[in-house]
Write a structure and sequence with these properties.
Strand content: 15-25%
CATH architecture of one domain: Orthogonal Bundle
Distance between the termini: 72 Å
Number of strands: 20
CATH topology of one domain: Hypothetical protein af1432
Helix content: 40-55%
CATH class of one domain: Mainly Alpha
């Protein structure tokens, strides 16, 4: 069937013959008629028949040179979601392959979901799983989103902004990650148009006004550049100017805090040659004829981006010292840069690439998907999804010379987890280019990183503020959750055993705990004990289920006998959990009251963060008197050499040398000062000093030394009501 015949069947279908001739016109005609019948009577907000949207989606796919099945999927992408047609109907008419694609594009409608966010996440999750099975799903989804963005002005303001923001956050980055540069640029520009309409209009107007000037400047370099390449006997396929898209220009203006007229590297030229050696030869010729900006030379041929993009990039000083960005690539690289993963997805027999090429193109996606599938909450899932749709990448090296690809802004922690989970889990430091560097340092292109490990090192919650990859974030959270569960189980067991002993309720076996867990809607005995430890299930509530025939509320706790107290003391349990002892509990020292060994302290079981240690007179603990089961008596066993930070507040009469004398008094006791500040207010000196002490006696020695300083009238520990949990 000819292109004219196809346009006769599908109203509005106008494509060049070279695109039409490669399509199965019979399949597309049947798909169009099927879609037209299904959407009969439906109209878009513009008033057009709904099927016109389906035709435009199919046209975008045909322009991407997609196969007939993909284009047919575009014609029918909404029939199951928006009409009475079922997946089985599609399967009977078009077979399993088309039905699978259409099903992958259909949002979830049958499940009972608790929130709009949860429904959105489940739709994303289904989409990602469908992409993993058949990559054509994402091509159709992006074409669908692109046409919706082109016609977004018909939507109400609030919905328009929401769709534009979602496009900006998810679909444009996804187009980038699949290498679909053209679609990504248009999606970003359209989202920019609806999210910042005034800035968009102003920039579009400036770009249009400068168009002739820009084309003239490109012409000044293009001619001499072609001549130099010809003289070097390089067969040039094409030398062309390239216009940067509006959002890219806007980002440059914002990041550099400059106006449009001050951005000098907006001129771009693309050089296409036949072979990889000619790419490097052309780069040498260009650098020989024009001065390059050294830090702007990038080799994405030797080190391709994760979406398959390959090219040589350089920035040179051209005529009139004007900056020009030049990209050099082969025809095949240009095809991949334009069509991304679509360039790898070939179905016709006899074409050059095969499944292995597609697997390589999808490898990053499958790794991301593996991490995201076990996300426990909608927020966590979306966070993972957005993290791994980053746009800029860097290449760093292991000490043995292996290349690791990371997002821009990645740190040694990201590198460690990229090497291996065990390396990340036991990371205690890093060397960058042979020098010790903090784990929070941002890595740069070509850095060489060595990770220092220790079997005693463990991930820290603080690391989450310094990681950029979904893999590292997932592994850190996974470890923290495991530790929290382990700690919660220890605390829960301690609380339950203590209450059972106090009430003399008898022995509890695993069957009792399992029955109680099921009654409370928990999976097993371990989760019951951990829930008690986390404070999610009260100890009285748990005892009611463990001993269903007992009136736990009326049962007064029995007073332990002298013998029981002696046994408890011998077991080491009468005074509660032994901090930093064999129990290995997750412990944190409250910053509100800053306890030190020697203080009377009490433990408080927090929700998911282990045991928080407070001084016994801390106001925050007194405020929690309504939850006595979450209080624990503490047997504080200090480790040798351990230090505790305490904030001392002091007042006195201002005089010359007071700061130096206070500092001297503190250091004279063998104490380290972490920070110190004194201010003069109306002849009075007011300030604070942070000191590291070993125990209460050491602290009292520091306080007495400061009190003896001339002019100091008062020194005291200062509690802050900021640590309630």
């Amino acid at each position: 069937m000819t292109a004219i015949a196809l346009s006769d069947v599908i109203p509005g279908w106008e494509l060049p013959p070279e695109l039409n001739d490669r399509l199965d016109a019979d399949l597309l005609a049947r798909a169009y008629r099927f879609s037209e019948r299904a959407h009969s009577g439906q109209v878009r907000r513009s008033g057009e028949p709904y099927v016109t949207h389906c035709v435009e989606v199919a046209r975008i796919l045909a322009e991407l040179q997609r196969d007939s099945v993909t284009v047919a999927g575009g014609l029918m992408h909404d029939v199951v979601e928006d009409t009475a047609v079922t997946v089985e109907d599609v399967r009977r008419e078009f077979g399993d392959e088309v039905a699978r694609i259409v099903d992958g594009l259909t949002k979830i409608g049958a499940l009972t979901l608790t929130s709009k966010l949860e429904r959105q996440v489940e739709n994303y999750r289904k989409l990602l799983l469908s992409i993993a099975k058949d990559a054509r799903v994402i091509l159709i989804k992006l074409a669908d989103r692109l046409h919706n963005m082109r016609t977004l002005e018909w939507m109400p303001d609030e919905k328009r902004r929401r769709i534009a923001q979602e496009t900006f956050d998810l679909y444009a980055p996804m187009a980038h990650r699949f290498g679909l540069a053209r679609i990504r640029w248009e999606l970003e520009d359209l989202a920019f148009k609806h999210l910042e309409p005034e800035a968009y209009k102003a920039l579009a107007r400036k770009v249009q006004q400068k168009r002739a000037e820009r084309e003239a400047l490109i012409g000044q370099l293009r001619g001499p550049l072609e001549e130099e390449l010809r003289r070097a006997r390089i067969e040039v396929v094409e030398v062309s100017g390239r216009v940067k898209h509006l959002w890219s220009i806007h980002k440059k203006m914002e990041s550099r805090e400059k106006d449009y007229d001050e951005i000098y590297d907006l001129l771009a030229i693309r050089v296409i040659v036949n072979t990889v050696p000619e790419c490097y030869h052309a780069l040498g010729v260009i650098h020989d004829g024009w001065t390059p900006v050294q830090e702007r030379i990038k080799d994405y041929i030797a080190q391709p981006k994760s979406n398959g993009y390959q090219s040589l990039h350089t920035t040179i000083f051209g005529p009139g010292r004007q900056l020009y960005e030049i990209q050099i690539r082969t025809r095949e690289m240009h095809r991949t840069a334009e069509y991304g993963i679509a360039a790898h997805w070939l179905y016709k027999a006899g074409e050059g690439e095969g499944p292995n090429d597609l697997d390589r193109a999808l490898s990053w996606f499958r790794q991301v998907l593996e991490l995201q599938l076990d996300a426990r909450s909608p927020d966590e899932f979306l966070e993972f999804l957005k993290l791994d749709l980053y746009q800029d990448e860097i290449f760093v090296f292991t000490p043995t010379g292996d290349v690791i690809q990371l997002p821009r802004g990645a740190t040694p922690i990201d590198f460690a987890f990229a090497v291996h989970t065990e390396v990340g889990s036991h990371c205690q430091g890093a060397k960058v280019n042979g020098k010790i560097a903090p784990l929070s340092r941002e890595l740069k292109n070509s850095d060489t990183i060595e990770i220092l490990t220790s079997q005693l090192a463990r991930p820290s919650r603080d690391w989450l503020a310094h990681v950029r990859t979904g893999r590292a974030r997932h592994k850190i959270r996974q470890w923290l959750k495991h530790e929290e569960q382990r700690t919660a189980a220890k605390i829960g067991r301690e609380i339950l055993d203590r209450e059972i002993r106090r009430r003399r309720l008898g022995k509890v076996d695993d069957a009792d705990l399992l029955r109680a867990a099921r009654a409370l809607g928990l999976r097993d005995a371990h989760h019951l004990i951990a829930s008690v430890g986390q404070g999610d299930v009260g100890v009285t509530q748990a005892l009611k289920q463990i001993f269903p025939h007992l009136d736990v509320e009326a049962e007064a706790p029995a007073k332990p006998t002298v013998v029981e107290r002696i046994v408890d003391r011998m077991k080491g349990t009468s005074r509660g959990i032994r901090i930093q002892g064999a129990d290995g509990l997750m412990v944190r020292y409250a910053q509100c009251c800053q306890p030190v060994p020697g203080d009377q302290v009490v433990g408080y079981v927090t929700r998911g963060r282990g045991v928080s240690i407070h001084r016994g007179d801390c106001p925050n603990v007194l405020m929690l008197a309504h939850e006595p089961e979450r209080r624990l008596e503490i047997d504080w066993q200090q480790q040798q050499g351990e230090r505790f930070t305490v904030r001392l507040v002091l007042e006195g009469n201002d005089r010359r040398g007071l700061y130096a004398d206070v500092a001297s008094a503190v250091t004279g006791t063998g104490t380290d000062i972490k920070a110190m500040e004194l201010k003069a207010v109306d002849g009075r000196a007011i300030g604070a000093v942070l000191v590291d002490v070993e125990h209460l006696t050491h602290l009292e020695k520091v306080v007495n030394a400061v009190r003896r300083v001339k002019g100091v009238s008062s020194v005291a520990r200062r509690e802050r009501l900021t640590d309630a949990e």
